Amino acid sequence: MIISLTGDLGSGKSTLAKMLAEKCNMKRYYMGQMRRDLAKAKGMTIAEFNAYGESHPETDYEVDNYQKELGEKEDNFVIEGRTSWFLVPQSIKIYISVDPSEGARRIFNELKDNNARNEGPQVDSIEQMIKLNEERMRSDHYRYKKYYDKDCFDLENFDFVLDTTNLTVDEAFDSLFEYIESL
Hints:
Layout: E1 2-7, H1 13-23, E2 27-30, H2 31-41, H3 46-53, H4 58-73, E3 77-80, H5 84-87, E4 92-97, H6 100-113, H7 126-148, E5 160-163, H8 169-182
Parallel strand pairs: 1-3, 1-4, 2-3, 4-5
Helix pairs in contact: 1-8, 2-4, 3-7, 6-7
């Protein structure tokens, strides 16, 4: 079984992917960290790297080719990434959603505690975080539409959609795991 997760910024994708991989005793692959590492190697924030990627498709192709290869060579893993659902088509496709304000609040609070995300410029408010998140989602939508003619935010592409806005981490995980168990 391969499970792909994507979704809104601050929805809890990474937390849920880690929990799911652990509970199911599966490997976890995190494409967002790969992109953050590539950005850092170029001396860019993830926001700058995404903007750069709008005219340099190799920034996406490197990570995306890796995902395709994983799907062809491995089984029994959790993969987290914007394009995982269509690059690993045999996966169970999960979308984690959240209200944009709540997602921004979660990320802002995480950045206050530990800013290891390489997000972008110093963020001093939730309002700034909302704007930064909007720009990232716009860039992601633009790039994947341009390079693959895919809409990574169209909920029709997914087998299961979970809105975490008003859920605790444990409640969100229980809902997600209940769905996986039902398969």
